[in-house]
Design goal:
alpha+beta, 8 helices, 18% helix
């Protein structure tokens, strides 16, 4: 009897074991995710065959600059008297810093392709990407506004992608061209709402972007091209103080998103105020003071990118550029290179550290009344946005000490140091007992 029960139980369990075994995941074939690399004739032929099969009305892959010039107009097609852009998009001079042009849903397939140059792990490119295409040996670049958190996990640095742009839009946010969708801000209670309510480029929904995007080959960061230049050289390539003319704006917009490695630069220890003035950073708590000597102290959740000045070895302010960082980046509360927890020497050693800063270059301008400034650094500025620092994301800031400091020989590599709130309290309140407090 007992033997029969065991036999019966075995027959019941066998299908369950088989079912569990059948649920084990199988390796996903690479060719179901990636197109073969475009470096081979066969890979390119397979890609074109797929495009022919999926686009019965024809298709075209535009270069990035050609895509912008073909579909992005100055006013955009969302300009309306009854439902306008945000008020600061223009001051009536014919230049629009905010615009939206929609792309046709049906008809010929509209494609762009490029290699991802950004990474969002360190937090400086939140729900934003930049792609690069090399045309005749030169960079062409385009920003992409996409509503995907941790997009770098899917679209990794150096991954070439092909995007079907039909149904999306091309627009400018603060004068920076980007692939996007139209977005209307109706928050009448926002800070300075009168400047923000209206149409502007918005993020492409993640599901729509994934459906429209195919990967070509596998990620290869070594294929990314950097322009390695000094600040002196940089400002022979672009206008240092762009004029609000269509000619200068075209130069600015084509240069936007460029992947660069600036050489022989150092932080001056100064920050760029909201009024366009220069001021020295100070040693204060970055939670409460926006001029603290870290990469991005608080903006009280206003959210604008913080700017700190990079100079050449001669400290020439007319050849300076800003280093831009979000207050939500993982390294936002790390000290600037050379900055220290000392109220009297907060930034005095910044000039003692120099090297290279890599990242994405752009000219952010969201004030439609902009006039080219008379002073060295006043008004909208060129900036470079690093993708990380050593130990956090991509190590885009590579500095060494150029002068012997106490305990630091010349040539020592810069190691990022985070603001320490405990040391800060001891420094400013040495006699305060906080052991039994909530602080």
């Amino acid at each position: 009897m007992r033997k029969s029960i065991y036999t019966y139980a075995m027959w019941l369990v066998l299908p369950l074991i088989a079912l569990m075994t059948s649920c084990e995941p199988y390796a996903i074939p690479e060719n179901t995710i990636f197109f073969p690399s475009d470096t081979t004739t066969e890979g390119e032929a397979n890609l074109h065959k797929w495009l022919d099969e999926t686009n019965p009305e024809g298709w075209k892959i535009f270069t990035l600059d050609d895509f912008v010039d073909t579909f992005m107009t100055e006013e955009g097609n969302f300009l309306s008297d009854t439902c306008p852009y945000r008020t600061r998009s223009t001051n009536g001079n014919g230049i629009y810093l905010f615009s939206v042009d929609t792309l046709p849903v049906a008809g010929r397939g509209i494609y762009i392709r490029g290699r991802v140059t950004t990474d969002d792990y360190a937090g400086n490119f939140y729900k934003a990407m930049v792609i690069q295409q090399i045309v005749n040996g030169e960079q062409q670049n385009l920003r992409i506004s996409v509503d995907i958190g941790s997009s770098g996990g899917l679209f990794q640095l150096g991954q070439e992608i092909l995007i079907r742009c039909n149904g999306f839009a091309i627009g400018r946010y603060a004068n920076q061209p980007q692939l996007c969708v139209p977005s209307y801000n109706d928050n009448a209670f926002a800070n300075k709402a009168n400047e923000k309510v209206g149409w502007a480029p918005g993020r492409i929904p993640g599901s729509k972007f994934r459906l429209a995007t195919k990967m070509i080959g596998t990620p290869d960061p070594d294929l990314l091209q950097y322009d390695e230049v000094t600040l002196d050289k940089l400002f022979t390539m672009i206008p240092r103080k762009p004029a609000m003319t269509k000619e200068d704006m075209k130069k600015v917009r084509h240069f936007d998103g460029r992947l660069m490695r600036l050489q022989k630069v150092h932080f001056s220890g100064e920050y760029y105020t909201q009024d366009g003035e220069l001021a020295n950073c100070v040693y204060r708590h970055p939670d409460s003071v926006s001029e603290a000597n870290v990469f991005a102290p608080t903006t009280q959740n206003v959210g604008y990118p913080q700017s700190h000045v990079l100079c050449n070895s001669s400290n020439e302010k007319d050849k300076a550029i800003c280093c831009s960082c979000s207050e939500y980046a993982k390294f936002a509360y790390f000290f600037l290179p050379g900055a220290q927890p000392d109220s009297t020497k907060a930034v005095s050693n910044c000039k003692r550290w120099d090297g290279t800063v890599s990242g994405i270059v752009g000219w952010y301008a969201d004030n439609a009344s902009y006039i080219p400034p008379k002073s060295d650094l006043k008004g909208s500025e060129w900036s470079i946005t690093p993708r990380g620092v050593p130990g956090i994301g991509i190590p885009d800031i590579q500095f060494k000490s150029n002068y012997p400091l106490p305990g630091i020989p010349r040539g020592t590599e810069w190691v990022p140091e985070e603001f320490d709130p405990v040391y800060y309290l001891d420094y400013y309140y040495p006699d305060k007992d906080i052991s039994n407090s909530d602080e």
